[in-house]
Amino acid sequence: MKLQYSLFEDHFMENFHPLTLTRPVYDLRVGIFTLAEKWKYALGLPVDSALRGPIRQHLSGVFELPEIKKEHDAVLWINPRFIPNVQLIEQIKQLEISQGLTCNDSLIAALISTKEHSKWEKSGIDQKALETSEIKPDGNTIVKNIWELFQLNGNEIRKDLILSKKIAYGEEKIYPNTLFVKPENIYIDEGALIEPGAMLIADKGPIYIGKNAHVMANSVVRGPSAICEKSVVKMGAKIYEDTTIGPVCKVGGEISNVIFHSYSNKAHDGYAGNSVFGQWVNLGADTNTSNLKNNYSTVKVTDWSSGKLVDSGQQFIGTIMGDHSKTGINSMLNTGTLCGVCCNLFSDGYPPKYIPSFSWVSGHDIVPYHFEKAIEAMGKMMERRSVELTPAYKNMMKALFDSTSF
């Protein structure tokens, strides 16, 4: 049977705002890879192949629809919130056309005809047209809330190294005057540079250093951690366990259990913990995130859709920050801060814990960021990394700006 693939979003998608304001769920990063990349490896697809799915209207042109060929037999729809494992892949392989798998009434995967696929693309998923089998959540990793990304991150780094079949390569003699602890757990890709005095400590988990990444002198990285392709760890940085520095980022200071998606900077001193940052974020010098309340109670996080505070049940949550948001020097971010897309935060006190997209924030004063000024700054930052701000990208941002309530 000739199969094609399509990744879809369900009603949990809004639980991942503000990150999913500018990307589909499948483009969220946890571990070394995005959710789409994990499924690509698990399904045995070519590394350079594209795995994508239906997208919301405002993302059109920034993310592409899958190309479905009618001469193929069927399309496998996959919910990327369910992180693949061997058992789940085997269950999916046993599906026949018009059959699906569910877990707690959420659709995991469905095998449908190309004709049915066309209907689903236009009108949405018709689960009633499927013969479904309920599987137990035991042994399956299901992402439901945004803070689960950093909570799962360390274990996902371990799994991604197995999934991608990367070979450990951590010979100190190749990198003079460095210190490798348990080098058999250190994975260094081609073109990576590790300067003298750097310490890679992998006794508690693996460390992955991506292609053309640069770990500067006297920095310390503790595993499990991932420094992805073309990223830079600045001198004297302290990278603690369960951290992912996504592609083309620059980081310094103290970082613990944090995910940076890509093209983001925390290049100076300051602390970030139990947090997730999108693309094109810039944290000014000495920006600090609080990740634990003084009374050790659980952290309340604002629900993006309703604006109401929700008890997360978690003791450690720092900051969740959308794409293109920035902080000024000496900024302080409160426990459980949720910051939207394209915000500018500068003050000598804590800003609000909920910050709508396109906000210009000084203390507790919030005013709308003028759209053309925001786009101008956006273009300049992207140009520095030789990335074009396309009309489709600008249209996506304009749609978000128009839908934001202040």
TrEMBL record:
One Pfam entry name: NTP_transf_4
Keyword terms of this UniProt record: Acyltransferase, Transferase
Domain of life assignment: Bacteria
MF-aspect GO terms: acyltransferase activity; nucleotidyltransferase activity
PANTHER family noted in UniProt: NUCLEOTIDYL TRANSFERASE, TRANSFERASE HEXAPEPTIDE REPEAT CONTAINING PROTEIN
Protein name per Swiss-Prot or TrEMBL: Glucose-1-phosphate thymidylyltransferase
Source organism (scientific name): Rhodohalobacter barkolensis
Lineage of the species this protein comes from: Bacteria, Pseudomonadati, Balneolota, Balneolia, Balneolales
